[in-house]
Design brief:
Elements lengths: L3 E7 L5 H7 L4 E6 L3 H21 L7 H14 L3
Antiparallel strand pairs: 1-2
């Protein structure tokens, strides 16, 4: 996920605890980025869910040869 940066963000739009932390400033540079742990956790959860779906038979496991054939078939359907 990308980092979000807002220059000259109005302090009055910040939550109260952050407004108190910046003191008398009227605007701030606001930077929002995910922590590495939260990204890793969501990725791990997605992988665990995918594994459950494969094991339960809701998603069919395919070989790399089958996957390539499917992709080529889809590609050949696209207009030139």
């Amino acid at each position: 996920m990308n980092k979000i940066v807002r220059e000259h963000y109005p302090v009055e739009k910040l939550p109260e605890d952050l407004r108190l932390a910046v003191g008398a400033a009227t605007s701030v540079r606001l930077t929002i980025e995910p922590t590495p742990h939260s990204h890793a956790s969501s990725t791990r959860q997605a992988l665990m869910r995918a594994r459950e779906l494969v094991r339960s038979g809701q998603i069919k496991s395919v070989s790399s040869t089958e996957a390539v054939e499917r992709i080529r078939k889809l590609r050949d359907e696209w207009p030139s």
